[in-house]
Amino acid sequence: MKREYMKYAAAMCAAALALTAGTANAGGVLFADDFDAYTDGNLVPQGGWANHSGTGNLLQVNSGQIMLEHGSGSREDVNHSLGATMGAGSIWTASFDVIVGGSSGVVAETSYFAHFRDAGFGFNSRIFVTAANASGDFTFGIGETSSSTPADTYGTDFSYGTSYRVTASYNFDTGISELTIGGFGSILSTSQADPGEDISTFAFRQAGGNTTQTIDNLVIVPAPTTLAMLGLGILSSVSRRRPTN
What we know:
It contains 2 helices and 16 strands. By secondary structure, it is of the alpha+beta class. The strands form 2 sheets. Strands 1, 2, 4, 5, 7, 12, 13, 14 and 16 form a 9-stranded antiparallel beta sheet that branches. A 7-stranded antiparallel beta sheet has the order 3-6-15-8-9-10-11, with no helix packed on it. The longest helix is centred in the first third of the chain and has 26 residues, at 2-27. The relative contact order is 0.24.
């Protein structure tokens, strides 16, 4: 019986792995871009990136990264299609590396520089740079809707010239976004909840402000589906089963 049980367990594990692998392939990465294949200069229209606002101070590619520069005057905002539109039950997550630049000792002005976007001007998971709490250079914030100020900011201060892994998610049903900075925990946009936005693109923004952002290694994925969880459930049931004799 032990041998038969092991055969059964192996078969069920294989089935579960096939389920989860199939789910990952079917609902895996929505969009990823490391910007390495692009020529230095204007980002648009390379790689399918498109302009949706601003005609001056165009967003630039430099050595396999993109460069956002805030300041006065017209500045370009860009977006890329994700090949799908959010619906009920969806949670999408965007992650990228960012280095924020600015003048030491100068207060960082509040500005959001990245966000999920619908087909028009519905923006969610707005990722902000804003003034430091104490002795650091700046801090990060998260917000929704049309607000020019974040719903929540980190109590931790961050440093210019340091690379951080930023992860922002948007929950279609609750309208709440979560921002996670690698190694520093998470904050939520609860006070600005904006449910039901038909997100279909991801965008980077240049606006009035006094900082820069160097962006690399963008990856956008949906949350794991119930089918993947079903596969994990099969594995769990196999681990609990025991031969009767």
